[in-house]
């Protein structure tokens, strides 16, 4: 294990950010979904996938060298989620059109018509909730892009100090 890398304060902070921010954002997304009925549209789901990847990559940084590579990849994944969030926010604010219509997958053992009729219609171009005029996708953009850049800056600072 590369203990010298993990003992640097900047690396430790980047590593903990890479693990905690995606966990908190996913936790908030699922709390919003199941606790408050803010069901995700297709583009909302797209933003979650890179956070799952970031969690796995950050987790790997605790066990597999080189730690800084895993942390940097987690930071990239977090940033990608933010970029998707920025695109989604632009669709919500009407700045541009989305790439797809809102859709959902239907399991093979379920009657498609019944699934369609019972599923809530979640539009990708409508924000179900905002804070200070910023939608959830907009907040994901700000938090995730900022976190990704901060992680890379911390790793760069740490590598210059070596």
From TrEMBL:
GO terms for biological process: protein folding. Its main location: membrane. The chain crosses the membrane at residues 12-33, 45-63, 70-91, 137-156. Signal peptide: none annotated. The keyword RNA-binding does not apply. GO terms for molecular function: protein-disulfide reductase activity. InterPro entries: DiS_bond_form_DsbB/BdbC, DsbB-like_sf, Uncharacterised_DsbB. One of its GO terms (cellular component) is membrane. It comes from the Bacteria. It is a multi-pass membrane protein. The keyword Cytoplasm does not apply. It is found in: Membrane. This is Disulfide bond formation protein DsbB. The lineage of its organism: Bacteria, Pseudomonadati, Pseudomonadota, Alphaproteobacteria, Sphingomonadales.
């Amino acid at each position: 294990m590369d203990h010298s890398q993990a003992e640097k304060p900047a690396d430790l902070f980047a590593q903990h950010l890479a693990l905690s921010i995606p966990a908190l954002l996913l936790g908030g997304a699922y709390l919003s979904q199941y606790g408050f009925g803010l069901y995700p549209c297709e583009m909302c789901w797209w933003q979650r996938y890179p956070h799952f990847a970031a969690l796995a990559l950050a987790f790997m940084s605790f066990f597999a060298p080189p730690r800084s590579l895993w942390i940097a990849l987690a930071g990239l994944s977090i940033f990608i989620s933010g970029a998707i969030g920025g695109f989604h926010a632009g669709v919500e604010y009407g700045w541009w059109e989305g790439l797809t219509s809102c859709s959902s997958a239907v399991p093979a053992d379920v009657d498609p018509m019944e699934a369609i009729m019972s599923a809530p219609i979640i539009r990708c171009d409508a924000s179900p909730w905002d804070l200070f005029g910023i939608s959830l996708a907009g907040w994901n953009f700000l938090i995730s892009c900022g976190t990704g850049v901060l992680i890379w800056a911390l790793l760069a600072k740490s590598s210059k100090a070596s």
